[in-house]
Design goal:
It is built from 7 helices and 20 strands. By secondary structure, the chain is an alpha+beta fold. It folds into 3 domains: 9-75, Uridine Diphospho-n-acetylenolpyruvylglucosamine Reductase, domain 2, CATH 3.30.43.10; 80-228, 2-Layer Sandwich (Uridine Diphospho-n-acetylenolpyruvylglucosamine Reductase, domain 3); 238-346, Alpha-Beta Complex (Uridine Diphospho-n-acetylenolpyruvylglucosamine Reductase, domain 1), CATH 3.90.78. It is globular. It binds flavin-adenine dinucleotide.
């Protein structure tokens, strides 16, 4: 097949392409294995008046029951290339369709530091900058040098520096100010060949109890801790049929936290800056009455992680939304705090799927 020819499929079920496993079909669907095919997909959508949804590994999305009426472009570009290798650092260009955890595994085995704590996060490399994935004390933004992206506004391929991407906690320009404008084609990482593994997170500190572990030990520890929380995809673990954490940890004014702490002496928080703190959403949700294992229809709160909403088998997107809405209402009523969902809602009328 010539590179610029597209094989457009129709009515392709999306549920099997997501980790939550719910939702309807894509009216049109195309696999893009080259940059030319990405461009051709955008052109096809424009000529046919179709909206576009860019699909990675489907691990951070909820597809509506009626599906998506436009064109889904599944980004399947592959290739990992070392572009610079010095004594202290290595620079790699990684295509957006590469599996993220396979890349982390490769880095750990090669002795490259910087992404070891991000072991076990499902999805593809191109999905990681979108919400600036983070876990166990690391964020992907601290290793991203720049990325190449297809700009749907100008039909050009552009290079965006780390600074251009506007990375912050679970955000970037890609899920805020210029949502839907860029299709990430490849990401350039700079990883350290010296350095030490990052052990800042409490769970990891406890795991190693003061000892300095190797990169491989950190990866194995992270995977093992994540497994206990059903935070690695495992066909045999029904609690892992999720989109990961469904809610972000809210960042609130210190005064809001102090009001809560006056009533609940055990209210946890993380410092953000002089006037803001971050409150763990899991604590708010549990205190609002949604314990691990809570069930609502075919949806539930994971038995192993308060932040994960799971498909208990045969759940519809509506089941998931009903539980999400109940959790949000419960936290708002008890604490006066609005939770923000982490996954992207596909095929809903409203970006936050309130209705
Ligand atoms: C069990 C489990 C554990 C998880 N743990 C974590 C965690 O610890 N930390 C964390 O941060 N996240 C976590 N997640 C969420 C998720 O894995 C990450 O956000 C991941 O990076 C999403 O990548 P994806 O390829 O699956 O993207 P998708 O789910 O396919 O898409 C997510 C969003 O990114 C956009 N997108 C995807 N690829 C591209 C591209 N090439 N160009 C432009 N836009 C694109 C999509 O349009 C969509 O808006 C977890 C999820 C699960 C299921």
């Amino acid at each position: 097949m010539p590179d610029n020819l597209l094989e457009i499929q129709e009515n392709v079920p999306l549920a099997p392409l997501t980790t939550l496993g719910v939702g309807g079909a894509a009216r049109f669907f195309v696999r893009a294995t080259s940059e030319d095919q990405v461009a051709a997909g955008v052109k096809y959508a424009r000529e046919n008046g179709l909206q576009i949804f860019v699909l990675g590994g489907g691990s951070n999305i909820l597809v509506s029951d009626r599906g998506f009426g436009g064109l889904v472009i599944s980004v399947e570009l592959s290739g990992v290339e070392i572009v610079n290798d010095s004594e202290s650092n290595v620079e790699l260009n990684v295509a957006a369709g590469e599996d993220w955890d396979a890349f982390v595994d490769f880095c750990v085995r090669s002795g490259y530091h910087g992404v070891e704590c991000l072991s076990g996060i499902p999805g593809l490399v191109g999905g990681t900058p979108i919400q600036n994935v983070g876990a166990y004390g690391q964020e992907v933004s601290s290793t991203i040098d720049s990325l190449r992206a297809y700009d749907r506004q100008t039909d050009q391929i552009v290079e965006l520096s780390n600074g251009d991407c506007g990375f912050a906690y679970r955000t970037s320009i890609f899920n805020t100010t210029v949502r839907n404008r860029y299709i990430v084609l490849s990401v350039r990482f700079t990883l350290s060949k010296a350095g030490r593994p990052t052990i800042t997170y409490r769970d990891l500190k406890e795991y190693f109890s003061g000892r300095e572990p190797t990169l491989d030990e950190v990866r194995r520890a992270v995977l093992s801790i994540r497994r206990t929380k059903s935070m690695v995809i495992d066909e045999t673990d029904p609690n892992s049929r999720s989109a990961g954490s469904f809610f972000k940890n809210p960042i609130v004014d210190r005064a809001v936290y102090e009001r809560i702490a006056a009533e609940f002496a055990d209210a946890p928080y993380f410092e953000v800056d002089a006037s803001h703190v971050k409150i763990p959403a899991a604590w708010l949700i549990a205190r609002a009455g949604f314990a691990k294992g809570t069930v609502l229809g075919n949806a539930g709160i994971s038995a192993n992680h308060t932040l994960a909403i799971i498909n208990r088998g045969n759940a519809s997107a509506t089941d998931i939304i009903n539980l999400k809405n109940a959790v949000e209402a419960g936290v708002q009523e008890k604490f006066g705090i609005d939770l923000s969902p982490e996954p992207i809602f596909v095929g809903f009328n409203n970006a936050n799927a309130k209705n």
